Amino acid sequence: MKGIGEDQKEYLWYTPFAIINDKGDPVALRTFKDFNDEYIEVWAPISKGQKVKLSLVIPEEILKDTEKVAKKLKSEIGIADLCFDFSCTARQYTLEDRAKEELEIYGSIIDAPLFGFFTHGEIAPNIEGRRLELHNQTSVGIVLREI
Fold it and tell me: Are the C-beta atoms of 141 and 72 separated by less than 8 Å?
């Protein structure tokens, strides 16, 4: 836990551990029960030999990334007729009362009707498309235009 500032430790409650097997495939999720500088306790057991993957995301980074993605979508499609946002529930928990800001970013940049919903457990192929991985706190933006 060294290197994580006191003001950032609260975000760990929303950050599950992805338990991975020896091939790197996700097998389970565990969440924090308690932690300090000496140990981390999770709500369920981690078996001997399993490895842990942790990704820490803070609200400002999520919203900055949302703006970057929305601008990229807008530049690629130009005028949009419809926008979808499929957002991870863990993302909503991390953003807390700022979750609506993500929608405002998409709405102001894409400038089209926006629909979407929260998802849970984004397990999808890795960037090479070779194996499944847990992608925590994701948002998938889809922009449509009639041609």
Answer: no
Amino acid occupying residue 4: I
pLDDT digits (tens, 9 = 90+) for 34-69: 777 777 777 777 778 777 766 666 788 889 999 999
Residues 35 and 90 in one domain: no
- CA distances 103 to 17, 23, 79, 95, 96, Å, are 27, 37, 18, 12, 13
Q: How many domains does the chain have?
A: 2
Instruction: List the 51-53 sheet strands across, edge first.
Output: 26-30, 17-20, 51-53
How are strands ordered across the β-sheet holding 139-144?
114-119, 82-88, 139-144
Mean pLDDT, all residues of the chain: 80
Closest CA to 35 of 47, 52, 59: 52
CA 63 – CA 89 distance, rounded (Å) = 15
Question: Which tokens is 90 given?
Answer: 């863990």
Q: Tell me if 1 is assigned to some domain.
A: no
